[in-house]
Amino acid sequence: MTSMTVTRRRATIAQMAALAGAAALGAPLSARAQSDFPNRALRVIVPQPPGGGFDFVARQLAERLSRRLGQSVVVENRPGSGTLVGTDAAARATPDGYTLLMGSVSNIALNMGLYQKLSYDSLRDFESVGLAVSYGYTLVARRDLPFGSLRELIAYARTNPDKLTYASAGNGSGQHVLAAALWHLAGVKVVHVPYKGAQAVYPDLIGGRVDVFIDLSSTARTQITAGAVKPLATSGADRSALHPDVPTFIESGVSLDLESWFGYFAPAKTPSDVQERLRRELAAVIADSELREAFTKAGGKPLSLDAGAERALVRRDVERWTKLVRDIGIKAD
Questions:
Q1: Which option is the CATH number for 136-234: 3.40.50.2300, 3.40.190.10, 2.60.300.12, 3.30.470.20?
Q2: Is the pLDDT higher at 327 or at 73?
Q3: CA separation for the pair 106, 109 (Å, rounded)
Q4: Most-buried pick from 31, 108, 165, 326 (CB within 10 A)?
């Protein structure tokens, strides 16, 4: 081999190395970061204060996801304007997989109908990466209300419009929207009495100053077991395991069902391989028997859905509740 040939070969190798280095340096930072995701702590934005259903599910998932990823998963409570402030913050976050949203029917589905100028679009701006659990609702009544079922209550309300009252945790809350939809579909008029939170309702309900209230079944169970209130109906498509003797809305003659699912969502533009990593790890977390038992004890129904089923469920509830809320004319504060 001549010295000229060796020189040319060395030049070619050097040029190839230089091109490879330039390509690596010119690659998008997000693409290079994906290969070792995650290499720092993640945060989960919870659009409600500590202590509620959003917070409980978020922390149960975060603790276990942290162990699987080998990185901290920090829960950040961002309440305000119902669930609007925290959800908007998640929608505006850098879509790199390091910021997730605790999503539920409330902020993903109901807000789409409650606000005419919403800063985000649930179906466009978010992608579910792990729905973990769902909770049904129970319609409870003051103990001395002279009706033992939702059918009896509706029959009375049809001939006595605006004579009964229903409480909610506030205008635009899940309890408000579900109750308003129930009365709308039943064709009756019941007077709305909004409170500042669900816990504020019970003293007046127990004291007989308001007639009925729709609350999460897990919370209502405590008051029912104590004999402070009585159950009339539940909101799921099937009877609740917490109250197997109580008929559903559908069994009571109203074509309405709702179970509020909870899970993690990522900004929709998060790289697909990062989404898949999160989805895979969360699937393992959600399948954990200890976690499923914790959800069941808290009155929830553990979920086990693949990506396609999750998307279908979210889309169904967003489209159904956006239309229903707008048809009824419910507005948030």
A1: 3.40.190.10
A2: 73
A3: 6
A4: 108
